[in-house]
Structures are given as structure tokens and as C-alpha cells.
Amino acid sequence: MWPVSSLVVASGILFSLFFASILVAKPCRGGANRYLAGLVLTTGISICYQALFPTGLYRALPHLVKIYIPAQFLIGPLIFLYVSALIDPSFRLTKTKLLHFLPFMLSILYLAPFFLESAQAKIGFVDSNVSAAIPSRAEEWVVWLYLQASLWVYSLWSLGKYRRYRREIKETVSNTDRYAWNWLLIFLVCILIILALFLVVDCFMLAGIPLVAFNPLISVSMTGSILYLGWRGMLRLDYISPPGEEKEREEPAQGTKDEMRSSLFDQVLDSVRRAGLYRSPDLTLPELAESLGYSRTELSRIINLGGKMNFYDFINRLRVEDVRSRFEAADRERINILEAAFESGFNTKSTFHASFKKWTGLTPSDYRKQVAARTG
Q1: What is 4-235's CATH number?
Q2: CA-closest candidate to residue 130, choices 211, 29, 9
Q3: What secondary structure does DSSP assign to 222-254, as a single string?
Q4: pLDDT digit string (tens) for 37-82?
Q5: Model pLDDT for residues 216-228, shown as the tens digit of each residue
Q6: pTM for the full model?
Q7: Does domain 258-375 fall into CATH 3.30.830.10?
């Protein structure tokens, strides 16, 4: 009878093959889905030892012994490449980026003599080593510690790119819900939580408890990552960057007076307010700039420096003002809150509630009650 953890890992490996085959077949610009397919597949391969050793399956499949070691050197780089390709439509796998795969290639070269050995020799290796207190060899220590260090570096690096993306996206669009995916943030945070658990495991290992005692915990957590990644990847395979937008580095304005900045901002604010341009649910910075006769860079600078806010906050503040004016109208007691929000340009309930609370300090329902009490 197989241990429960081995059954979980075996199912995770099968799911990794299933998800990877689907993701590779799905078209996606920039190859983000291919990096995700590789990440799901290598994660599945990296935990196959938990299905091979406790069950004795390695005797039937001896040539899979140690195949999981090179795969573990790929997890960190593939996380970073996937996040990079997903949030940056200009991302390309250049020769410089191939250096991320150098540890993987070195591990292949190092293990090549073992991979060329006979099936019987590999079975003998497992029989004489796997039952020992792992890690008991320098090779196992290097893999275990490198895996942790690599995941820390690449996960934090990816998290930094994601946070920069979130900031940049608010300089371009007025509704971020369709672009800024919290699931990607959740995924990266979960990796960091798993790594924190690995640090606890390290402490127990230093106290004399072998790594093999924690294999079920490690394998099950990695299997969960496979299922989550595969499921989310199948649901969303497109870019989360605004379509048709090119990133543009904006130079800070030099020598511009505060009064001039404020004056230009007031002009823009008055024009947008009078024309009701903020009521367009998917309004973007380039669209607004074209409507007002500015370049994208000029308008962004006016809003950032003159209004001390980003484009996202600028437009949603106007939408909140519009909702408030609707609450002040004669039919305020009968007005539907979400209907007022959507007519003012919001296209999601979550963005509306967050923006309204930010600019008024109250929830929409509390604010409407306050208005009713004041005028009733």
C-alpha cells in the first residue's frame, strides 16, 4: 500500500503532465504560457522522488533516479521568466537571459556519469543511500540549499517586478481590475510562505532530524503549487498588461513652477469634469491625452506633478464626485448605489467601494444615509 503522501505526489505528477500539455498548446504572445508549462512540469518532476523511493517504484523505473535534481534548478528561473513574460509584452528570451539556465546545465554535466550508469547500479545507489539521513552527501546539501536560495532570490525578484507593474499600470488605466491580477501576487506570497517553512525544516535538520522526515510536507506543498498554477494558467492565458500600450520612461519636469503645474492641472481637471470624460469605463491615459490635445507624457506629468496623484486616482476621484452628486439629487433615497457607480464610469463593485472609501472616508451606503439625514 502506497503512503498517502506518495499518492498525492503521484497525482501531482500526472496533473503536471496534463496541465503542461494543455498550456503548451494554447497560443499566448511572448511565450508566457510556455514558461508556465515548463514551471508546472519541472515542479512535478522535482518531487517524483517521493513517489519513487517510499513505494519502491524506483526498482521498476531506475533511470528516473536523480532526474529530479536538475529539475529543481529550473523552478526559480521559470518563475521569474513566467512573471516577466506575463506582465511585460516586450519581454524576449535573449542570450543574456539564458544565463538563468546555467546552474541547470551544470547539474546535468555533473550528474551525467550517474545517468549513464546501468539500471542495477542506480538501484544499488538508492538501496544504500536513500534510507540514510538525508541530506547525508555534499551533493544533497548543495541541491537543498541552492533550491532555497534560488527560490528566495527569484521569488523576491518576481515580486518586485510585479509591484512595479502595479504602480506603472495606475499611470495608464482608470480601471485596473482587468489587468492587475491578485492571483499572481497570491502565488508569489505562497512561495515565500513555503520557503519560510523550509527555514523551519533547516532548524530541525540542524537539530539532527533528517530531511527525509519532511519529504511528505515538502512534496504535498509542491503538489498544491502545481494544481494552483495549472488551474490559474488554464483560466488566464493572456497578458495582464494593457493591450496596445508601450512602456515609456518619463523624464521628470525640470524648472517647472509649482504655480504653473497647479494651473495646468486645474485646466485638465476642469476639461475632464465638464466633458464627463471620466464616465468612459475603460478610459486610458493615451485616450484622454488625445482628447485633450496633450501627449501621453505631458498629461502624465501634469497629473503626477500638478495633482500629486496617478492617473488611476485622478479619474476615480472624479467618478466618486459624480456618484456623490447623484446622491445629492432629489431622488437620492431611491437611487441604486451600483447603478450610480456604473453610470459614473466604474465597471466593478470592488473598485467603486475602494475608491469611494478612499476619497470620502465612508462606504457608499453610509454616505447616502448621511446625505439623507442631513437633507431630510
Answers
A1: 1.20.1070
A2: 211
A3: HHHHHHHHHHHHHH--S-SSPTT----PPPPPS
A4: 898 899 889 888 888 888 888 899 999 988 988 998 999 999 999 8
A5: 777 777 778 777 7
A6: 0.76
A7: no
